[in-house]
Amino acid sequence: MTDPKKLAIKDFVYELPEARIAKFPLPERDQSKLLLYRQGQMADHTFTNLPQLLPPHTLLVFNDTKVVQARLLMQKETGGLVEIFCLEPVAPHQEIQLAMQQTGSSTWKCLVGNNKRWKSGPVQLHFEGGVLQAERLLQQEGHFLICFTWEPAELTFAEVLERCGRLPLPPYLNRDLTPDDHTRYQTIYANQQGAVAAPTAGLHFTDRVMAALQSQGIATAYLTLHVGAGTFKPVKADTMEAHEMHAEQLYITKSVLQRLQHQQGKPVIPVGTTSMRSLESIYWLGAKVLEQPELPMQELQVSQWQAYESINPPSAADALQALLDYMTHLSVDHLHASTQIIIAPGYIFRMCHGLVTNFHQPESTLLLLVSALIGENWRKVYQHAMEHDYRFLSYGDSSLLLP
């Protein structure tokens, strides 16, 4: 068995010319190409064919996170600009969905551009009917703690970002934001505010495709993983053991766990790597709760290597039942957890039977995940995509991978 800690990221490289990166979305979401990989065979389709290509009785699982306008261009007293990029909340709430509803003030971990030019004092951003102020509290490894205060104080932080923030496009698009991006860099089912990057596999879905899924008898379910900026974090370590995965916040409802339980023995296919990481994390949370039934909810987390260090992993049915019992015991109808799971060659899938996903950057953890699912065949898939004019990365084309 492959030891994922010993994997070298330089073994997960392919040539990606700049011209193959899709800088803009197609006019129609569902007209993108879809590469079907099924048990070693490949075929070219259009995304509208997806419902007919999925295995019978599939449960398709979506991530309904919504990208927030997390980039803020603040002004110093001297008039110079400082860019602040909100990463995750620290106080008074660490839970993103609570932090988004916070009024008056909030402290966040942030990246700061032009930091050297920000000598001292607060910076401000005026917006229609109000003002946002930011003050640096502390510099930590790779980021700053920033305290935001705003007027009118009754506005929620979500409303403030909506009024004066900018959508954070992926750095590799290397272009300015257009008005179109505000709708096109969100899925049509985006619902829970908190991501700083879109779950891009979902960008191809339209009402037309959703209706076709229903008429094809394909069931759907939604969970929430708030995608962090770490999704773009390059792997700089020689081996994966030295690469720290970013933690992301995950929300699951009791009804979705029950759906997954009823789905045992039938295919579960996530839309996107974030949905796949969520589903597999659900299994490992269940395994943890089986071992520690009294675990406090704030300690519900999946560490980076937990999946590879488990001695006697339970069945998926037992892990799901443990989580359902845990929720009943706590009298809650949804769980909030955090996950750092890394899915790499050597990983044994507990919940997922395939994947709908875009084409990912060379030397990325997302490519490791694809390789974990279809093995070395990822090279053939990417070579086929390259030779058949597929568009790559966030606004690019799609694939359905069925090992």
Topology record:
Elements (H helix, E strand, L loop, with lengths): L32 E6 L2 E6 L3 H4 L5 E5 L1 E3 L3 E5 L5 E11 L4 H4 L5 E9 L9 E5 L2 E11 L2 E9 L5 H8 L16 H4 L7 E4 L11 H9 L3 E8 L21 E6 H9 L5 E3 L2 H19 L9 E2 L3 H4 L6 H15 L3 E6 L15 E4 L6 H10 L3 H10 L10 E5 L1
Parallel strand pairs: 1-18, 3-12, 3-14, 4-11, 15-16
Antiparallel strand pairs: 1-2, 5-6, 6-7, 7-10, 8-9, 9-10, 12-13, 13-16, 17-18
Protein described:
By secondary structure, the protein is of the alpha/beta class. It folds into two domains: 4-66 and 184-402, 3-Layer(aba) Sandwich (QueA-like); 70-166, Thrombin, subunit H (Beta Barrel). 24% of the residues lie in helices and 27% in strands. It has helices spanning 50-53, 96-99, 157-164, 181-184, 207-215, 254-262, 273-291, 306-309, 316-330, 365-374, 378-387, and strands spanning 33-38, 41-46, 59-63, 65-67, 71-75, 81-91, 105-113, 123-127, 130-140, 143-151, 192-195, 219-226, 248-253, 268-270, 301-302, 334-339, 355-358, 398-402. Strands 14-3-12-13-16-15 form a six-stranded mixed sheet, with helices on one face. A six-stranded antiparallel sheet has the order 5-6-7-10-9-8, with helices on one face. A hairpin with a 2-residue loop joins strand 1 and strand 2. The relative contact order is 0.20. The mean pLDDT is 94.
